[in-house]
Specification:
It is built from 14 helices and 17 strands. By secondary structure, it is of the alpha/beta class. It folds into two domains: 35 residues; 366 residues, Alkaline Phosphatase, subunit A, CATH 3.40.720. Strands 1, 4, 5, 6, 7, 8, 11, 12 and 15 form a nine-stranded mixed β-sheet that branches. It has a two-stranded antiparallel sheet with strand order 2-3.
């Protein structure tokens, strides 16, 4: 005899409680099928409002500049004053206390605490100007410098969070706490995908070999939050077999697999008709996508059709699965196959005491592949409608963390008040710098761009009014930009 549980029993297993609650709801709606049940189903259907193309009805709201996004996200926060934000006065102030008027009552991480008396630290390598735009780029990033005329540098960015996970969540989802849909999930929900053989949102991660300051890659960085999980990012592993369990077991031929999936889909559809849980439809869609990926993924990861001059753009690590260079080439191959949002996350930038070692490694691993991706997209005619983004969750302090007499242990702490990101393609003006920090790189002071402004601008480039792309959850309408955000029109071509 099966064991029974009381729904009010706190020791009852969670699946049992969920099942009992589900039955109660089903019976309730069944008894009221001509009234509240029909109304609930209508509300659910109107909330989805998906067209035959898989996109939300009414989107894009206007002609988009970009059709797809490749986000080269640098976990751990690259140091703006050492890479792109040249500050001559910082060299003159080297070793002197940070001016108190620049700091005020600003909040820093607990590693800095009160910044009073902290010593200013000069850029660790020289800067030089590149191209017709005259953009200042550190000698640490020579390949990026060579494509400076293709880039739009945002130097007045600022954020609200002072620690990594909340800041990354804030930048990607609009909220510091996990649980909201990320940018890729919002786009997957609103615009759908042009690919039937691959997911609309793919995430890949990498970390420099031997790094001592890697960041944790939390799944919520590519999560769908309260959106149905069919919109979350699919993480590709760093190997030549990036998606597990795609291959059929020995002895199972494709025809049998097809019949199996058809029968399973029929059973799941019956369950959906009973309870109306959108996650059941997600399950059906995932099985179907996995079936199609059995042929698309092996072709995607086969670089044998890539000529040497293209591989050379990305640098020597491009043939090594799991590296940033490999992921950048994978991002281009995904983009040209119709994937709408590719998120390449690279960790190791959290240089609290390793600027003179780790920073060199990070730049060596990411500089050439990032520039190579932009050049590759341009050669293929894809850059015009592909938005490439390079940047982290915040910047790093222009003052030192550590002993200024011990160069081997120089470091910088987290810095949310000014940081730099660059954009390329996708309807963004090339060869410009927008915004500026003060003469020490401490505060964004000119044409400031808040994270929500940044998000609103990205959506605008994709043809989306950020105030219209919403989802009703727990009694209110949510959006990526929360209740804030203004489009930065001066950077749009």
């Amino acid at each position: 005899m099966s064991e029974t549980w009381n729904i009010l029993d706190p020791t009852a297993p969670k699946p049992v409680l969920e099942h009992q609650l589900e039955i109660n709801r089903r019976h309730f709606f069944g008894r009221g099928s001509s009234g509240i049940g029909v109304a609930a189903l209508a509300a659910m259907m109107s909330r989805e409002r998906l067209s035959a193309q898989g996109r939300l009805s009414g989107f894009p709201s206007f002609a988009p500049k970009a059709k797809r996004v490749i986000y080269l996200f640098q976990n751990g926060a690259p140091t703006h004053v050492d890479l792109f934000d040249y500050k001559p006065r910082l060299h003159k102030m080297h070793g002197k206390p940070v001016p108190e008027e620049y700091i005020g009552s600003k909040r820093f991480s607990t590693m800095t605490g009160n910044p009073k008396g902290k010593l200013m630290l000069q850029s660790i390598e020289p800067f030089r100007q590149y191209g017709d735009s005259g953009a200042w780029v550190s000698d640490l990033m020579p390949y990026t410098g060579k494509i400076a005329d293709q880039l739009c540098f945002l130097k007045g960015l600022h954020t609200d969070a002072v620690n990594h996970a909340p800041a990354i969540s804030f930048l990607l989802s609009g909220g510091q706490l996990p649980g909201r849909p990320t940018l890729g999930a919002w786009l997957n929900y609103g615009l759908g995908s042009a690919s039937e053989e691959l997911p609309g949102f793919v995430a890949m991660t990498s970390v420099s070999k031997g790094t001592s300051c890697g960041q944790i890659f939390y799944d919520f960085y590519w999560g769908s939050g309260f959106l149905p999980t069919r919109y979350q990012g699919v993480k590709f592993r760093g190997s030549r077999d990036p998606v597990l369990y795609l291959k059929n077991p020995d002895g199972l031929d494709p025809a049998l697999r097809r019949r199996l999936l058809d029968d399973l889909a029929a059973l799941n559809e019956l369950k959906f008709q009973q309870v109306g849980d959108p996650e059941i439809r997600t399950r059906i869609a995932q099985y179907e996508m996995a079936y199609r990926m059995q042929t698309s993924v092996p072709e995607l990861t086969d670089f044998s059709d890539e000529p040497d001059h293209v591989l050379d753009l990305y640098g020597p690590q491009v043939r090594e699965p799991g590296t940033f260079a490999y992921n950048c080439l994978m991002a281009r191959r995904l983009a040209e196959r119709g994937v709408s949002f590719v998120q390449c996350m690279h960790a190791g930038w959290d240089q609290h005491n390793s600027l003179t070692t780790e920073l060199y490694n990070q730049c060596r691993d990411t500089d050439q592949p990032s520039a190579g991706l932009v050049q590759d997209l341009k050669m293929r005619g894809l850059l015009d409608d592909t938005l490439v983004i390079w940047g982290g969750e915040f910047g790093r302090t222009p003052f030192i963390q550590g002993d200024i007499k011990n160069r081997k242990r120089w470091g910088r702490d987290h810095h949310p008040y000014a940081f730099t990101t660059w954009l390329a393609g996708g309807g963004v003006k090339p060869g410009i710098t927008y915004g500026a920090s003060d003469d020490l790189g401490i505060n964004a002071v000119e044409d400031r761009v808040h994270v929500h402004d940044f998000q609103a601008t990205l959506l605008h480039l994709l043809g989306i009014d950020h105030e219209r792309l919403t989802y009703r959850f727990q009694g209110r309408h949510f959006r990526l930009t929360d209740v804030h955000g203004h489009v930065v029109h001066p950077i749009i071509a």
